[in-house]
Amino acid sequence: MRLRSGDAGSMYLASDPVATAVELEDVSKTYPGGGGTPALRGVSARLGAGTFSAVMGPSGSGKSTLLNCAAGLERPSAGRVRLAGEDIGALREPALTRARRRRAGFVFQSFNLVPALSVWQNVLLPQRLAGVGPDRRWADEVLARVGLSGRKHDRPDRLSGGQQQRVAVARALAGRPQVLFADEPTGALDLSSGHEVLALLREAVDELGQTVVMVTHDPVAAAWADQVLFLADGRVHSSLGDVSAERVAAVMTELSAR
Ligand code: ADP
């Protein structure tokens, strides 16, 4: 077990010479409406390209904030964020939106599909928004990968939750993002649908070389990752490179007893 408890707020998960896909350097975030309490306090982390990382920690420890800052959905209050080599922490709108659309794909707990659009239109939407001509052949392939080629023309409300989340995975992969960010992707799913979604994310890493960063509170979900970053009170608590559900659960138990 590669666990570095109480490490002074930094973590380097990528084992060289793996290229770095996401790099946070001393990142802090205080929300305007947050009463002055920082959600992140000097977080440093490096996540390797082509790897699957899980971010864990108790509720309110800053997991979603870290993901949102890494993906360019939120701007850090201080520190640097590099996404696929680009320093996005310094970008302001609309450059930040452009960088995010070009570099990041997203899967959220609540699927976030557009109800009025078909599965196929949903899958192509991020590329359309990014102003690039959609790669239809690749979109077809990713829809086949998630097992939904036959549901192309259906509206999302005709699909089960698990199927909708598989569409969201296809949508994220269709834009060939440098990093796929997933925030509690199995949080709204039953066990077997959650398993399918995690298997798809794992496959994307192993077969497509996709980089995946996933926030989860579930040790079983985190066990699909190559490495786990633990947050507590907005700081990096530790990291785990030799991941199993038991090891992850042991750290979570330690964290919740603090
Ligand atoms: P986690 O994902 O680990 O549950 P979050 O990143 O969602 O943690 O939240 C970290 C802290 O920041 C919490 O105290 C939360 O209440 C606060 N927070 C999150 N989002 C906002 C926001 N948009 N405005 C104000 N405070 C926020």
Describe the structure in your own words:
It is a single chain. The chain is 34% helix and 24% strand. α3 (119-129) packs parallel to α5 and α5 (161-174) packs parallel to α6. It has 258 residues and is of the alpha/beta class. The chain has one domain: Rossmann fold, CATH 3.40.50. The protein contains eight helices and eleven strands. α6 (191-208) links the parallel β8 (179-183) and β9 (212-215). Mean pLDDT is 92; it is low at 1-10. It has helices at residues 63-71, 95-103, 119-129, 136-145, 161-174, 191-208, 219-222, 245-256; strands at 10-12, 20-29, 40-48, 52-56, 78-83, 86-87, 104-108, 179-183, 212-215, 227-232, 235-240. A six-stranded mixed β-sheet has the order 7-8-9-4-10-11, with helices on both faces. Strands 1-3-2-5-6 form a five-stranded mixed β-sheet, with helices on one face.
What's the helix count?
Answer: 8
**Beta content:** 15-25%
Question: Helix share of residues?
Answer: 25-40%
CATH third-level topology: Rossmann fold
Q: Outline, from the CA principal axes?
A: globular
Question: Which radius of gyration do the C-alpha atoms yield?
Answer: 18 Å
Distance between the termini: 21 Å
Sheet with the most strands, sense and barrel status? 6 strands, mixed
Class derived from helix and strand content: alpha/beta
Helix/strand order: EEEEHEEHEHHHEHEHEEH
Name given to the CATH architecture: 3-Layer(aba) Sandwich
Bound molecules: adenosine-5'-diphosphate
